[in-house]
Design goal:
- By secondary structure, this protein is mainly alpha-helical.
- The chain has four helices and no strands.
- It is flat.
Amino acid sequence: MAWNEQAERMRARVNRRAFGYRALFMVGRAEGAEIDTTPWWAFWRKPEPAALTPAAEIVLADLAHYCYARKPTLKVSQVDQHADPLAMAFAEGRRDVFNRITAMCNLTSDQIDNIVHSRSDNA
């Protein structure tokens, strides 16, 4: 397989994944909007952040709570009262999932702060 074919397949995979996350969580373009005609290499640039859908705000707020987005991941063993590295690694894995979703959606730090702190106001 030629290098160009490999690069094109890789670009398509990255675009499909990024656009999938954005389509799931972000408000789409209005009908009649211009078609994006940027060159193929422009996918390396992050798209402009957009507004979240109401359902995405609910889901991301729940994920923020579940994924330890607003609390420390230090876990103490109930048996010997020492830090539990396995539980802490598990909690960090959860946090990494939340960070990946917000990164793929290209959310701003203000949007992430609103998501993280919205659940604490409602709980």
